[in-house]
């Protein structure tokens, strides 16, 4: 039994000694790991020919895990405002310590020999990359300049069009308002034409008062309902009593209390108390206030009853009828 | 002592008493004022009436003046006490043959007070029949005769 060893690729402890590396599981893990790393390296290789320079974005801080060295490596090279894509990875791949680590990795894990070349970048490749990087930087600068120029042109155009619009609006407005201090307007216009480019504010101030007057005059006329001054009754201005304070004839007699009377209040109190009683008490729905007939009998389950409680009344009535018949029969022979 | 308690002398008055007592136990004593046992019972009733005023209303009824109720309630022994709550008759199991009324007098005031309280609680819970709290030894014994015998 070999001593316990840990394989970082499989992330497992094994006791087989040297045999573990040749096992199926380990080889499978190895293949998967290399497959994961390969696309990154390929992307970096492409960048050797055509280095791309871009504006810095926080995403360019991403790191890539180098399997052979066992550490994280910056993917993109960034300096100030600009980034060179895949620059960091390329640098790392070209470095000598990475080469050493890759060799060691291949020997220990018994990976395929041909694959090793793919994960390495020679120093010539790296020099080529540097050249293309310089080129890329120059072209980037040119592009930036162009963009700036374009933006400036756009802004100028927008301003020009705005000025034109303002002038065209101002001219027709000056004509239909001769009463509105035409002299003032004229003087404004004069100053405006002199100070055309610098001050745009006076022209803006002129616009609001002119349209307002227009609207007030051309609206619908209001309906006239007559003069409201009868000589007898005063109104609010003369200080007469308001209509709601005038006493009505109905209220002149009797007390004029608003709200419930004292008895009603007591009744309300009783009702509140009733609400607090349990709802399923005996006779909760017993109507106390309706008048009863002469022959009313309460609900009484009698002693010698032959049915349910509510039938006891009926039974009593029939028995009472029978008894009265009997007493009649008995009385008759006495009388006669 | 019986002059302290209100008396009912006609069916109409009894009807009115039954209908008008709201949310309180109605105690109707059926008997004659001169009868000795009735006098005992009336004494207990009057002495406890003020203590029970919030729970119960007590009335005395003369059996000779209300024959309808004497027949309806099957009163054959006096005094008989019948209990009502909100117009509904309350039955109590005293351990005696007749549950519809209490026949005879109570031994102590406390017995009567306990009984009224039990009836009141039972009525609040919706029970039409309750168990009497009185010791069976203190309940007067009588034979229940069937009326036609």
From TrEMBL, chain B:
Give the primary localization class.
Answer: nucleus
Subunit (UniProt):
Homodimer. Interacts with the U5-102 kDa protein subunit of the spliceosome.
The record, for PANTHER family, names: THIOREDOXIN-LIKE PROTEIN 4B, THIOREDOXIN-LIKE PROTEN 4A, 4B
GO CC terms in record: spliceosomal complex; U4/U6 x U5 tri-snRNP complex; U5 snRNP
Where is it localised? Nucleus
Protein name stated in the entry: Thioredoxin-like protein
Question: Is tRNA processing a UniProt keyword of this protein?
Answer: no
Gene assigned in the entry: TXNL4B
Record key words, sorted: Cell cycle, mRNA processing, mRNA splicing, Nucleus
The family note in this entry says: Belongs to the DIM1 family.
**What is the recorded function of this protein according to its Swiss-Prot or TrEMBL entry?**
Essential role in pre-mRNA splicing. Required in cell cycle progression for S/G(2) transition.
SMART domains to which the protein is assigned, alphabetical: DIM1
> What are the GO BP annotations of this UniProt entry?
mRNA splicing, via spliceosome
Task: Output the Pfam families linked to this UniProt entry.
Answer: DIM1 (PF02966)
């Amino acid at each position: 039994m070999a001593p316990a060893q840990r394989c970082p690729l499989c992330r497992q402890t094994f006791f087989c000694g040297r045999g573990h590396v040749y096992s199926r599981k380990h080889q499978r893990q190895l293949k998967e790991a290399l497959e994961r790393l390969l696309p990154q390296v390929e992307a970096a290789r492409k960048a050797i020919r055509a280095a791309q320079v871009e504006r810095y974005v926080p995403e360019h801080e991403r790191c890539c895990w180098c399997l052979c060295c066992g550490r994280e490596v910056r993917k993109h090279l960034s300096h100030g405002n600009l980034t060179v894509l895949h620059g960091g990875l390329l640098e790392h791949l070209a470095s000598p310590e990475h080469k050493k680590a890759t060799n060691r990795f291949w020997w220990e894990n018994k990976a395929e020999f041909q694959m090793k070349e793919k994960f390495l970048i020679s120093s010539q490749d790296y020099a080529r990359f540097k050249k293309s990087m310089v080129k890329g930087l120059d072209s980037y600068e040119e592009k930036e300049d162009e963009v700036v120029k374009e933006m400036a042109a756009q802004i100028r155009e927008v301003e020009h069009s705005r000025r034109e619009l303002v002038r065209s609006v101002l001219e027709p407005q000056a004509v239909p308002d001769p009463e509105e201090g035409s002299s003032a307007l004229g003087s404004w216009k004069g100053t405006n034409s002199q100070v055309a480019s610098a001050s745009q504010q006076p022209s803006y101030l002129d616009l609001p008062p002119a349209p307002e007057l227009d609207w007030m005059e051309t609206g619908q006329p209001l309906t006239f309902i007559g003069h409201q001054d009868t000589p007898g009754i005063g109104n609010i201005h003369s200080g007469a009593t308001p209509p709601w304070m005038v006493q009505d004839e109905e209220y002149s007699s009797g007390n004029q209390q608003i709200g419930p009377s004292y008895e009603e209040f007591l009744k309300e109190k009783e009702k509140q108390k009733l609400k607090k009683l349990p709802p399923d008490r005996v006779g909760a729905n017993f109507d106390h206030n309706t008048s009863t007939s002469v022959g009313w009998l309460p609900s009484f389950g009698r002693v010698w009853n032959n049915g349910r409680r509510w039938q006891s009344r009926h039974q009593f009535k029939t028995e009472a009828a029978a008894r009265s018949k009997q007493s009649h029969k008995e009385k008759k022979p006495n009388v006669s | 002592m019986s002059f302290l308690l209100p008396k009912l002398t006609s069916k109409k008055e009894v009807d009115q008493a039954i209908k008008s007592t709201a949310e309180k136990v109605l105690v109707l004593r059926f008997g004659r004022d001169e009868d000795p046992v009735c006098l005992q019972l009336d004494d207990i009733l009057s002495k406890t009436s003020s203590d029970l005023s919030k729970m119960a209303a007590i009335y005395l009824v003369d059996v000779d003046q209300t024959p309808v109720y004497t027949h309806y309630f099957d009163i054959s022994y006096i005094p008989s006490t019948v209990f009502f709550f909100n117009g509904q008759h309350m039955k109590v199991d005293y351990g005696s043959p007749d549950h519809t009324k209490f026949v005879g007098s109570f031994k102590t005031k406390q017995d009567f007070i306990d009984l009224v309280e039990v009836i009141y609680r039972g009525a609040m819970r919706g029970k039409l029949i309750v168990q009497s709290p009185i010791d069976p030894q203190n309940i007067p014994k009588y034979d229940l005769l069937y009326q036609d015998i």
